[in-house]
Amino acid sequence: MTVTALRTAAPAPATPSEALFNPKTATFTEFDPETQRLFKVVVDFFETRGKKVLKEQDRDLIWYSDFLEVVKTERIFATFLTPAALADGDPNKRWDTGRNAMLSKILGFYGMAYWYVWQVTILGLGPIWQSSNVAAKKRAAEQLENGEIFAFGLSEKDHGADVYSTDMVLTPAGDGDFTATGGKHYIGNGNLARMVSIFGRRADKPILDSADFERHANEDEFDGYVFFAADSQHPAYKLGRNVVDAQMYVAAFDLEDYPVKADDILHTGKSAFHAAINTVNVGKFNLGFGAIGACEHSYHEAVTHAENRILFGQRVTEFPQVRRMLADAYARLIAMKLYSERAIDYMRSASPEDRRYLLFNSIEKMTVTRQGESVMIGLWDTIAARAFENDMYFPMAILGVSGLPRLEGTVHVNMALALKFMQNYMFNPADAGLALLRYLPGNPTLSKVLRKSSRAATPVLSRGVAQLRSELSRATFEPVPTRRDTADDEFLFRQGPSRGLSKVRFHDWRPIFEAFSHVPNVAVFLEQAEGLQTLLASATPTADQQKDVDFLFAIGEMFTLIPYAQLVLEQAQIAGTRTDVLDQIFDVLVRDFSGHAVTLNGKPNATKAQQTQGLNLIRRPLADEGRFDRVVTLARAVAGSYEMNP
């Protein structure tokens, strides 16, 4: 029996942007010395315990008190999650999105339960750090220093994320104090959090009708809503049960005449709503990084198994269908990493004048997590039954990664959010010709002409049309640099009102695609993106279609792939990602885009023009056998490079 050679024409070793995370060799040199040390402390904790203990504690649903003891002793959460303004002179304490994202990836790499206790602590701190309540903020900083964890009490069993209808009721008790009665459901860390940020309403004020959410409410109709802090160890805090079978504790709890003092109040009125949404903007950005970590560990495990398994005289990794699955999984995973690294820069450079991060953030939560699920399914198909065995990390990861897009309706909520940005992103007002498309009757020919000539026409049009000149002045941005400096990302806790998303301006997305037009499948994808632009300009969704979320999702799926691809290319340009890898990434994205175009064509309420133009968006990626072979070789080269200590 002859076994085919392990590898054929080997490409050069993977560049850093093409390599998977390996905790045993990672140096974390992009971060400051104390951050490097703490990352290594976390890695050493898991590697010293080994995979056997990790798996046993996962199976036996053991609360991770040993991990939290290290967090306390090494002051990990205190160092990473205390804003500089509350650091009390500690030069290492700051809110740094870059290092928080890396810790999210490391924790996801070893287990989503460990990522979860960190993630929920971030969410619980959000309303506190945004508050003007100085006493509550100092208390939170002290609790972090003591090694405590936090929780975010928003959802309820009957209402879910419909916060307008909250049944957590605060009754005035005089002198600015209240008593709180009601229940919350699906609250991570709700068993031990010393400060739980809880959303509720006052008994003496009216509340909004969530069934009439499209109505523009008056400011005073929000007066009854409140965010306050509670202690899970208080006698009036009645812990119910863990609602999931997992290591993490996802609590159901009730407050029974819980005393809420004036210095427990974090936000009132409309500010409470802004705090909730802005907290999600900050905290759930980490979903994508948790998915990346879990996928990277799973990839190491899966490809090592497949590379060393011989069937019918061949390595499993040499079967044609497995080669395709590995190439796709590798390409999707590298794209997830590229996009996410660049999204960090936009988060850290955000300001009241630059809110582009809100779109990129929603894609991090939605698209990156779903791409992660696709990676896991491809790996699962590669290793088949091996994925179920009890000595594998894989079963832990597949459950965790599959859950991420479904936390609190992550996909549905974030797609609806992303759609609010679509018009300004696609018809960028920094380009007068594209902006002009919004004011002219649409037809495909005119759309194409204006799109091709718009940048040349911009100076003339902007001088002659005052409205366009004004729009141009609001859409000028300096290039966003790579941000791994030691700054404190304090803007994230003063984001301001959460409204006005449809007014957020973007820079022109086309130049980065044109800069990579020598990559065959980038050029194909650009054709699809411009085709969607034409469809939106000449076959604009009707008023009824714009109320049909199911219909809009078909368009939204295509739209969100464009900013996703944009940031992939921006980071590839920064990191020097090779052409072969980018071509394979865009081979995948072209196929994804085409699939969504077919879905749009099949919508029963799509107009004839939308059906026709939807089918016109379908493209066949350009095949290149040599490129494919080289990427497969890169994908297989991961085999044996990392295995968790036993």
TrEMBL record:
SUPFAM superfamilies cross-referenced by the UniProt entry: Acyl-CoA dehydrogenase C-terminal domain-like, Acyl-CoA dehydrogenase NM domain-like
Name of the featured protein: Acyl-CoA dehydrogenase
- Gene Ontology cellular component list: plasma membrane
* Transmembrane recorded as keyword: yes
Protein family:
Belongs to the acyl-CoA dehydrogenase family.
Keyword line: FAD, Flavoprotein, Membrane, Transmembrane, Transmembrane helix
Tell me the cofactors it needs.
FAD
TM regions (residue ranges): 107-129
The Acyl-CoA dehydrogenase/oxidase C-terminal domain sits at 273-417
Q: Which residues form a coiled coil?
A: none
Q: Which GO terms describe its molecular function?
A: acyl-CoA dehydrogenase activity; flavin adenine dinucleotide binding
InterPro entries, alphabetically?
Acyl-CoA_Oxase/DH_mid-dom_sf, AcylCo_DH-like_C, AcylCo_DH/oxidase_C, AcylCoA_DH/ox_N_sf, AcylCoA_DH/oxidase_NM_dom_sf
Keyword Transmembrane attached: yes
